[in-house]
UniProtKB/TrEMBL annotation:
Protein name: Uncharacterized protein
Keywords: Membrane, Transmembrane, Transmembrane helix
Residues spanning the membrane: 6-25
Length: 127
């Protein structure tokens, strides 16, 4: 009788360990999926903001007039390197069309780099 009881206890422990291991790996997989989901949402949000700001930015640069709402997006919502490039544009008071085009191009490059950075982060998680 005691051997049967001991067998039940041992197999119960083995079954419990298997359940805990399965739960651990399921949780780990869920965390990775949520991280990827979050990064994709961030990328989509930034891409929409970039598309929204693109025509406005051309207008702002040509008129040297900036919308307060979008200024706040640059400060709060955009990645640091995009914000830094925008600050360079704001600091340049020359209003030279050639320089403005260069600033605009530089901002577009930084925006695309930020999207590529998110893509690379997603790819590194998936490897």
């Amino acid at each position: 009788m005691s051997e049967a009881l001991l067998g039940v206890i041992i197999w119960g422990i083995i079954a419990s360990i298997t359940s805990v291991i399965t739960l651990f790996y399921s949780h780990k997989k869920w965390k990775v999926e949520e991280k990827i989901k979050s990064l994709k949402e961030k990328r989509n949000r930034l891409e929409l903001l970039y598309k929204e700001i693109h025509p406005k930015l051309v207008k702002w640069i040509s008129e040297n007039s900036y919308d307060i709402e979008m200024l706040s997006h640059f400060e709060c919502s955009f990645p640091k390197k995009v914000n830094e490039q925008f600050q360079k544009l704001m600091d340049d008071k020359s209003n030279d069309p050639t320089k403005n085009k260069f600033h605009f191009l530089s901002m577009q490059v930084k925006m695309n780099e930020s999207l590529n950075d998110i893509d690379k982060e997603i790819e590194s998680i998936l490897k």
